[in-house]
Amino acid sequence: xxSTSPEMxxxxxxxxVAKNKTKRKQSPFTKxxxxxxxxxxxxxAAILVIxxxxxxxKLVNGFLMGSPSAILDAAITMFSSGQLLTNVLATVNAxxxxxxxxxxxxxxxxxLMWYSKAVARVLDPFIVALNGIPKIALAPMIIIxxxxxxxxxxxxxxxxxxxxxxxxxxxATHQIDESQINLMKSFGAKKSQIFRxxxxxxxxxxxxxxxxxxxxxxxxxxxxxxxxxxxxxLGHMVFVEGNLFNLPAVWVGVFMLMLVAMLxxxxxxxxxxxxxxxxxxxxxxxxxxx
Length: 290
What we know:
Order of helices and strands: HHHHHHHHHHHH
InterPro entries: MetI-like, MetI-like_sf
Oligomer: single chain
Protein name: ABC transporter permease
Transmembrane segments: 37-55, 62-82, 88-114, 126-148, 154-173, 194-224, 244-265
Number of strands: 0
Region (Disordered): 1-25
Pfam family, one: BPD_transp_1
CATH topology of the largest domain: MetI-like fold
């Protein structure tokens, strides 16, 4: 017979309680996520069924509205020919490159403006004015300057995301507690050290939050540029098929844009969870407490 000491039994009880608490914490989030996905699937399926039934029963004009079955046939045809994949890759590549370039350079410029308040005051009205201009209004000039290829779409997405990232990063430098900066100065820290140790780490949440906005702006800018002048891309596909009154193909382009937007946003959210794990923990705790 093996005898167990009181200390060992207490450890086992403590371990069992900790495991039960972990399960209780995880199970509501998993259950909530599962139910949310089920309801989303039900809503989408109901819309598609009602849509298809309305077209088949001649309640709506299938030529003007399209139908799920016709959209599926168009998607299969376009995917088999390689047209769909080519257009998707063109739009995604331009969006990602423009988003990365504009967000990184904009964030860096916004942080560097902290070094000189005089320069920031001089540039402030110009930045605000440029931010107020709809970026799609710059598309004709950018396309004339850089051509109708993918590079002009990258430039357009970069310009659109640059301003937002710059403003967000610069605003973040004004939200930092001055007591931290004064403490570093009291220890004889140089401005470059304060920038590396205080300004950049404290500004990261604002910068990453701007990335969430910028990924959508980059996609909108690229698609807008493709509408104006392009030889490939989802915007080009929707524009051409719309002129041909090919509604199923137009719907394929629209649904692909929705899918691309969701995937890109999910990727940015995942990057945020890696760079700012404490924010991810807050979000998950909020979702479990609802």
